[in-house]
Amino acid sequence: MTENTQRLQKLITLSKERGLKLTPQRMVIFTILSEANQHITVDEVYQRAKQEYPMLSLATVYRNMEQMVESDLLKHLDLGGTSMRYDTNLGKHHHFVCTKCGKVSDVYIDDIQYKVDTKRSHLDKAKINSLDLHLQGTCSDCS
Ligand SMILES: [Zn+2]
Ligand SMILES: [Zn+2]
User: Fold this and answer.
1) Cβ atoms of residues 106 and 93 within 8 Å
2) Number of structural domains in the chain
3) Which structural domain range is residue 12 located in?
4) Whole-number pLDDT of residue 78
5) 95: CA distance to ligand 1 center in Å?
6) Distance, CA 89 to ligand 2 centroid (Å)?
7) pTM, rounded to two decimals
8) What is the mean pLDDT of residues 138-143?
9) 97 and 79 together in one domain
10) Ligand 1 is an ion; residues with CB less than 5 A from it
11) Ligand 2 centroid vs 106 CA: distance in angstroms?
């Protein structure tokens, strides 16, 4: 079984567990997500999906992907660009963005120990649960 088939199988299994119906449209989206770049925009999914399903609208693709986020099959990835990306990697990780070619890579950091200056940050009684790092630079292809 190839890596793509494994990813597709995982999406199908997860959606069954979460009670999402396997509609033909959803299967097309699942297939695209398992074959494509891991950090894809809804527009990229739509452009590929309509080659197979010309009747499919951008709104339908968007709605399906949002349902997947609600059911924890996908995560939103907001890197501050113009379009929201989606991430199929559900594990804890951070991101590196190449400022030249725009490539997004996953970054794994095992042990981060930050000391937040809660007074200066006006976070006196806040409890911090997560941290998302967004690193920027030039990737190995560009530098
Ligand atoms: Zn690059
Ligand atoms: Zn990621």
Assistant:
1) yes
2) 2
3) 3-87
4) 84
5) 13
6) 5
7) 0.80
8) 95
9) no
10) 98, 100-101, 103, 139, 142
11) 5
Q: In b/e form, how buried is each residue of 68-87, taking b as 16+ CB within 10 angstroms?
A: beeeebbeebeeeeeeebbb
Percentage of the chain lying above the pLDDT 70 cut:
99
What type of residue sits at position 91? G
What torsion, rounded to 10 degrees, do the Cα atoms 77, 79, 83, 84 define? 10
Residue 82 half-sphere exposure, CB side, CA atoms within 13 Å?
A: 2
Position 112 pLDDT exceeds 80: no
Nearest residue to 12 via CA among 77, 70, 76, 68 = 68
Of 49, 65, 87, which one is at a domain's C-terminal end?
A: 87
Q: Per-residue pLDDT tens for 27-83?
A: 999 999 999 878 999 999 999 999 989 999 999 999 999 999 999 999 999 887 777
Q: How far is the CA of 51 from the centre of ligand 2 (A)?
A: 26
